[in-house]
Each structure stands twice: as C-alpha cells, then as structure tokens.
Design brief:
The chain is α+β, with helices and mostly antiparallel strands. Helices cover 33% and strands 14% of the residues. It contains five helices and five strands. A hairpin with a 2-residue loop joins strand 1 and strand 2.
Length: 152
C-alpha cells in the first residue's frame, strides 16, 4: 500500500492507505479523529465537512491521495488551545445544537464561508448545503451572523 503523508490539525501524519480510499475513512478509522461525521458517504449531507488547505471539502468524497502534502483541518483543529474559534463560541451562545451530529460539519462550513465573506447575507448563509435533521437552521444563521460581527 502507498504511504500518504499530509498534515492534520497542525501535525504531519503518514498513513498506509490506497490512493482512492476516502479521506474520511483515513481520518476516522486510521487516525481516530471523530469530529468529521459519517452521514451519507456520497457528498450530500456534508456532516463530514472539513478543510483542505483552508477550503471546505467533504472528506467522504475526497480520495486520500488528494490530501498528499496538504493541510487538513477538522473541528478538532479549529480552536487555538483552550480558546474556541469565534464560530464555536457563537454556536454555544445561540444554543444551536440539538442532537449535535451535524454540528462539526456545520461549523466548518460556516468558518469557510466567513473566510470568503466577512458579512454574509441570509442568502449566502442559506446556500450552505449542510443538512441538519433537527432543523436548527434559524439558530445556525444567527450564530454565523454573531460570529461575523465578532470577527469584524
């Protein structure tokens, strides 16, 4: 099996994995990183949303070979030590989570949006395609707006 070397949450890792193995399986099964959730496995629900070189991706649909030499960030790598990311703080303040399953992916999608757009409109926020079965979309929108204000 080929060796795949990349950085995850600031730490360089090397794993033995086939080039076409989904990055999600490498993160969860080989590296024990549990934040990115398995939802659909076909790039629809986006519960696994993580960042690849700062851009939101869905590792269920990204082969590990695409991560070679690159930086992967999961929800575990978002905080700076004990200091939560502003989006994480806003999520807690707005009491977004119900079941919580989709929240790591939701947060990572929101962080990527706020990197692209400092003050997103409702339409831009609603364009995030991450699925929340509990239907907390209103609170998600409010948390993103709160984080945007905090980050300005």
């Amino acid at each position: 099996m080929p060796a795949q070397t990349f950085t995850v949450n600031g730490e360089q890792v090397t794993v033995d994995a086939p080039d076409d193995l989904p990055l999600l399986w490498v993160l969860r099964d080989l590296l024990g990183i549990r934040g990115p959730k398995y939802g659909c496995g076909i790039d629809v629900c986006k519960a696994c949303t993580s960042h690849l070189d700062g851009e939101a991706v869905n590792p269920c649909a990204v082969p590990v070979s695409e991560a070679a030499g690159r930086e992967v960030t999961t929800i575990e790598g978002l905080a700076d030590g004990d200091q939560l990311h502003p989006v994480q703080e806003a999520w807690m303040e707005q009491d977004v989570a119900q079941c919580g399953y989709c929240q790591p992916g939701q947060i990572m999608a929101a962080v990527a949006l706020l990197k692209r757009t400092k003050n997103p409109t409702d339409e831009e926020i609603d364009a995030i395609e991450n699925v929340c079965r509990c239907g907390t979309y209103f609170r998600i929108r409010e948390a993103i707006k709160s984080a945007a204000a905090r980050m300005s």
